[in-house]
Amino acid sequence: MAQLSWRPPSPTPSALMPPSYEIAQVPTETVVYMFSPQESNIMLLLPPADSPDTRPRYHISISFNMWNPLSFITTVRKGATDSAPIVAEFDMGISTLPGTVSMGGITKFLKEVLIEREWTKFHWKFRQDARQHIYWERTTNEPGLYHCFVNGIKLASYQGATVKRRPKASPLTVHPKGQPYFDDIVVSLLILERRRFRPPAPRSGGLLEQNAWWS
Q1: Name one Pfam family in it (predicted).
Q2: How many domains does the chain have?
Q3: Would you say residue 190 lies in a domain?
Q4: Environment class of residue 158 by beta-carbon count within 10 Å: exposed (0-12), middle (13-18) or buried (19+)?
């Protein structure tokens, strides 16, 4: 007579994934996130306190480039900690080497992917598909205010610091159609703001020309 062996019942799909690991649904409404500095070199992008998912969307950290202390490496991670998956890294600062940005294992020069077409319009062209190229428009009547578009569709808005207004946290408003472009919105905005606050190059000429002063 064959010996019967007992096997435990297979777990249901809901039992395989604890509630804390459930995949958050993409927001279907406009959401106002906040860039919130946490420490001297760390900033989080936080959703509203009443959001269905209150976990930080991005962890942003800055470190020195050890070979060039006047240049800084910014690391953008998707999540709340420094062990979360890396979305992008960019290196820029005072250097004779051109700044770079890396996403998805691809590295490009900053001057190739964030282009100022007009004084108030900046195109982000990292993606190979031109239909995914987003652009930012800076308003002329309100300093520090930007709007982000793709193919004429508004994706997001950002209110940055000004000479007189320097809040600890800065709002990033993302519309539903901007959610698929979230990585590009955050990375391009961080680079754009770093450029906005960079000091001018020396006027003395010599070795530190304008194109070699800031990467």
Answers
A1: DUF6593
A2: 1
A3: yes
A4: buried
Phi, psi dihedrals of residue 205, rounded to the nearest 5° = 80, -135
Range of the domain at 97: 27-196
Chain centre distance of CA 107: 16
Report the mean per-residue pLDDT for the chain: 84
Does pTM top 0.90 for this prediction?
no
- Residue 182: both structure tokens together: 């979230």
CB-CB contact of 155 with 178 (8 Å): yes
Rounded to a whole number of angstroms, the distance between the first and last alpha carbons of the chain is: 79
For residue 212, what pLDDT is reported?
A: 55
Could you tell me if residue 213 is inside a domain? no
Decide if 39 is inside a domain. Answer: yes
What pLDDT, on the 0 to 100 scale, is given for residue 142?
Answer: 80
Q: Which tokens in the block code for residue 88?
A: 């992008």
Would 209 be classed as within a structural domain? no
